[in-house]
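SAMPLE LOG
Freezer: B-3
Tube label: C17
Construct: single chain, 647 aa
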Amino acid sequence: MRRPPKDTIESARKVSRRGLVVGGLQAGFVGLLGWRMRHMQVEQADQFRFLAEENRINIRLIPPARGEIFDRNGIAVAANAPAYRITMVREDAGDVDAVLESLGQLVKLDPEEVERARAEMKRSAPFLPVTVADRVSWEDISRVAVNGPALPGVTPEVGLSRHYPLRQDLAHVVGYVGPVSERDLSRYEDPPPLLRIPRFQIGKVGVETKLEEVLRGQAGAKRVEVNAVGRVMRELDRREGTSGATVQLTIDSALQNYTAARLGQESASVVVLDLEHGDVLAACSSPSYDPNKFVRGISVADYSVLRENDHRPLASKIVQDAYPPGSTFKMVTALAAMEAGLITPTETVWCPGHLEVSGRRFHCWKRAGHGHMNLEKSLRESCDVYYYDLAIKVGIENIAAMARRLGMGEAHDVPMSAVTDGLVPDKNWKFVNRGSDWVVGDTVNASIGQGFVLASPLQLAVMTARLATGRSLSPRLIKRIDGVEQPSRGGESLGLNENHLRQIRKAMHEVSNNRRGTAYRTRIAADEMRMAGKTGTSQVRNITAAERRAGVVNNADLPWNRRDHALFVNFAPYDNPRIAVATVVEHGGGGSTAAAPIARDVTLQALYGDDPPLEAYPSADRSRIQAQQERLARERRARGAPGQEEA
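STRUCTURE (predicted):
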């Protein structure tokens, strides 16, 4: 049946309309697809190229060279030395045990290190290198390199590791570095990626940790091409890092070396301050330890020896420990009384050997008494009763204020670990910390540096320096950073009456140079070098009634750790002060017998810059001093003189 022409025309019109719609939709889709392809290929080309590169190119950090540390004369005290190590890649080695056995025939391997390497290889990717021998010799590296074809997967490598040429001399000042630990990472909210490099070294104590950000430097980076499983195929480019800053200390390593040898194995410390800028010329804590043992991780046996030593070689006695200052504190009490206008230098106090205070008898060290004492005589002969009487007049608040003015009771700003505040007590301190009121007896004890008063050797040196100069001198340990001189800490005037300071200095001069002075036997004979000082003996225990009945009244009758501490502070030369020195000998007995001789010898060494002439010593001591100088010279050579590398 034929369709009418009218229907045919209508049908053709409908088909054409649908074709246009479908064709339009198709054309629109193709156009949208083309626009999207252009957007991705042209406008987003860089982004997709970066994503593609990221899949095959890795950025890896290059550890920077750590900044080196020098003494004031340019002698290295913390250097970077080449460190040779041998690594192994498990997948290249094949039979790991066989390769390790072959390697062991060429190089002496530490069994513990090998077991650690085996464990690390098992838990890490097979293509990553693992250290099997660290800090090996150049001869070992050479043997491995020559036998390379017979040692598949084994590679000799060279890097930098920290080295301390002077070993134990500056351990408590410079400190040491060691591998980054979880404890180190926990100190950062967002640890720097550099710290996650295997075996990266970070400062642990001393200047090494306090100036970590300065010494560490900035990491470099290298771009390496890796395959789908992360194996390095080739290095594309490299940007070296920036080395850490060079740090120069104020320490004179030759003086430090002498001081360490002079202290020997005593449990003691010495601080020497320059009086122009406050430079710490020597800061020695004895006994010491070799920081090189800590760089790669000290053994349990070596660490146990240090930890169990009752002389505490790991403690930095210079700044970490605080002691009752004993009679070295008497200058503080005397100056507080004079500044308050409560006494004059000529006023006297009768010393019968004790003073009754609130029904309690406070004894003088000289049980028979000193008789009439004025300021100069009381310091010269170290009369306790004079200061008991003075303390009642001046009060603890004035004494505490003067002590703080002279640098006690504060943690001085030096880049060393565990710097103590010491303790300058007052009424409020006792109420807050002990829950009781201050009593007159507390003031009496504090007046002679006993009771609650505590000071570190560094604080005692600062106190002496401020008495010698009248300025608010503070210790400076860093002389330069990258050649830039650090600000002087010579300080401004303390605002103290100069006449009062002169009276204190004159009395300290008498301590060392008057025949009745407590330190006369250890005086300096050279007129131009004479020192002014003060002895101190700080009691660390009370003799019990049972001990007294048994006749145990002297330090020599007691075990070492129950004997009194010996102290001595001094400045020199008296007429033109250049240095201040503080010496503490733990459980040494008396300041005049244990601490003063050490202080005198260190003072002369600092003033002369080398072994002083025998004429600088009293004639009766010269033969003994000559023998001592010869002995110390041998010991210093054995310790490793400054500038001489460790063998």
